[in-house]
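input
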Amino acid sequence: MIIRPPAVAGSFYPGRRDRLESEVRSHLPEGLVREPAIGAIVPHAGYVYSGPVAGSVYARLRIPSSAIVLCPNHTGLGRPAALDPSDFWRTPLGDVPVDRELASAVRSRAPSLEEDAAAHAREHSLEVQLPFLQIARPDIRIVPISVGAHDLDLCRELGEAVAGAAAAEAERPLILASSDMNHYESRRIGRAKDDLALAAIEALDPVRLFTTVFAERVSMCGVLPSTALLFAARELGAISARVVARRDSGDETGDPSSVVGYAGVIVA
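output
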């Protein structure tokens, strides 16, 4: 049995079970109607910064028993498209099983996807999603995939593979893309750049998102998983992408001169 241990517990989120559960619940608004969705884009910074946006997404989702989680590769380690080979991912809330059958179904449809632990060993962007999923759906299973090559065809391949595997399931899994928005520019500039990326997302246009982010120098770290999600959503008949929450790191620090943006989007 292979267990992927937590890499950022105690830094991006609390390392103690009781404190982690309390913090996650504090970011989940009460009284919202949970809705079925094809997927969502969710931020992945430290919870003090992006937790309210992530919680605003998760509190609105009716979460099925499995989730395919697409994340960027911040470390540069491992393969360009990497499926983690672990059996479980551990957090202070317990172990999250990997849905090996669903993972195999995705991999069989995506020739570029390779099993590779190195891409995931120190990557925080998928790990920080798990406590929210564990609180919202304690029996959740995941398919952990990182995307690290700036390749539109690769994003299309992964998105279409994910869609094909999802469509074949009796209960369609949720597809999550982990992404923050523009990094380390003023709130005014960052907000304008984020608006460009979000307009492409709301149009459900993966090619426009990919080309806009690189042409306009929007430092959206999860553009690759988000592009793959949009390709998948298009295959699965999505009709809307709705921004449900936005903020930036300056809301916490009080300094708008250099911020990281966060946006939560539900795709249905």
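quick obs: The chain has eleven helices and twelve strands.
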